[in-house]
Amino acid sequence: xxxxxxxxxxxxxxxxxxxxxxxxxxxxxxxxxxxxxxxxxxxxxxxxxxxxxxxxxxxxxxxxxxxxxxxxxxxxxxxxxxxxxxxxxxxxxxxxxxxxxxxxxxxxxxxxxxxxxxxxxxxxxxxxxxxxxxxxxxxxxxxxxxxxxxxxxxxxxxxxxxxxxxxxxxxxxxxxxxxxxxxxxxxxxxxxxxxxxxxxxxxxxxxxxx
Length: 210
Ligand SMILES: C[S@@+](CC[C@H](N)C(=O)[O-])C[C@H]1O[C@@H](n2cnc3c(N)ncnc32)[C@H](O)[C@@H]1O
Ligand SMILES: Nc1nc2[nH]cc(C(=O)O)c2c(=O)[nH]1
Ligand code: SF4
Ligand SMILES: [Mg+2]
Known about the structure:
S-adenosyl-L-methionine binds at residues 48-50, 92, 133-135, 173-176. By secondary structure, this protein is an alpha/beta fold.
């Protein structure tokens, strides 16, 4: 099976419980909740996306014919002779493409595998860190994992019942966009009133790194 990749880059995880951790990001092309075209945004199921995931034109992007060729490119981004490579699979929606062969190849090459997903598709076994970020109006299949990270606020998506689900950590991530200042204040207030929830600020945006 081949893999379509927008870009591969080395940065710090900016979000959630692993914020600050060096990671190689593999951003897959395509998503099932938005085409990625601005003219489709208003009628997309997920209409607040902050990411360009169309095509294969980013650094390290392309069509990789097999798992080993993609893993080689990922490994080339990690500093040699150091800590176990920490690889974040994102997109777009990574679970449209991430399969057992790719996870096994990453593990065989010594990597730990983290996934950022919208939770609409089931996940192959073996993921080391699963972050689920459900979207209002989309089917929600993956209801357990390491962290639940809700972009907040979303109309019709009250966080309180979600805190009963079997996740280890719960984050609200203020929706970036024209109302960011207000959304940040709402998220701070919600976390203070419901301490199960922690604030996830998108550290990479504050730092000006990818
Ligand atoms: C670009 S998505 C890619 C992974 C997957 N499709 C998903 O939605 O989880 C990565 C993370 O960014 C979050 N996100 C996307 N747009 C955002 C925005 N405008 N403000 C805050 N978080 C956003 C998503 O909720 C998700 O947690
Ligand atoms: N630094 C950094 N951290 C991230 N965590 C999740 C990201 C994503 O786009 O999925 C992301 C990203 O794009 N950059
Ligand atoms: S599900 Fe994720 S990648 Fe897809 S449009 Fe929404 S935030 Fe962007
Ligand atoms: Mg991002």
